[in-house]
């Protein structure tokens, strides 16, 4: 009986050497082979055992892909001609394999009865065409063992923004697919909790360690054949379906905070509660700002879109579905010629600013700035600036910040009590 004999907690790195020893042990290999999966083997010259390659030869050097399985390019690399499909996994949480048809999959170890397990089980039971349409990486199989399970997903590609997106249409498609994925999760009351570029995938791959030849991805992007998908639910949570997402405000000192990190200024004022759905959207806006700031001169719609994803007026912020509708309405108005317009050349001396510092409206034409003025982020008030200054270390939850905020929240009430006391007609002179 296969058993996990090491510490394994969601979101924690753990002992990678122990994990690798488990994955590459003969008993693990045999267990998976009996269930139809041939695990990759470690690359011979990698002592860390973090890079691996397929055991079975690939029938085709270039595979066009058939959903849910990704396309791949196995043309030999210049310096590594014998390892065209190497996979690299830093934390030892995922092993790659091939099924009996030689199709490539990723297998993740997940603890049973966790939020991640519940979400992956939910996704496994959905039709593939639903996940394809809504840009969520599908779950093909779940293999249980005592206390854990192995979640089988198709192997897709990493580094979705490499190489640089070449046209306005390509930028819009990537943003649309990312928004689709998050909107779908939110529609089922799933909080992702860890929005970052590495948690989105693209449906083609080659050597993931040194992806030097990107011609195949260039071609697929140019022909509009790529798909992007959201995945990785280590830090995710599914709340009951009857809960209204917009009213789901929970204490900032609750056990479930905001994922592995918080890249927004949403709670830099020492807030006592937060909305994780709104935080997901804000983190996505920060991601868009950080990756597409230099595209705004050619795609000015990004200025109002990013503002509405990251506005400090949290209750006025776009939901993921509202942002998707806003972007799709604009995209549908563009001609084929406008979609094929090249993205601006990158300025490698340009340092990307934080989303709350970047002046994204500077390059927006005046007539469009007027048209979109209702979406423009209003100036931050002096009170907010003061609170941010006071709680400048409040990006990560800290008990003292919350205590000070609670004290400040009582001040208006105390002041009203004093005024009421001195203005009372029954007060003795």
TrEMBL record:
UniProt-recorded Gene Ontology molecular function terms: ATP binding; protein kinase activity
Domain Protein kinase intervals: 80-356
Pfam families with a match to the protein in the record: Pkinase
Top-level division of the source organism's lineage: Eukaryota
InterPro entries: Kinase-like_dom_sf, Prot_kinase_dom, Ser/Thr_kinase_AS
Protein name: Protein kinase domain-containing protein
Upper taxonomic lineage: Eukaryota, Fungi, Dikarya, Basidiomycota, Agaricomycotina
Record organism: Agrocybe pediades
Coiled coil: none
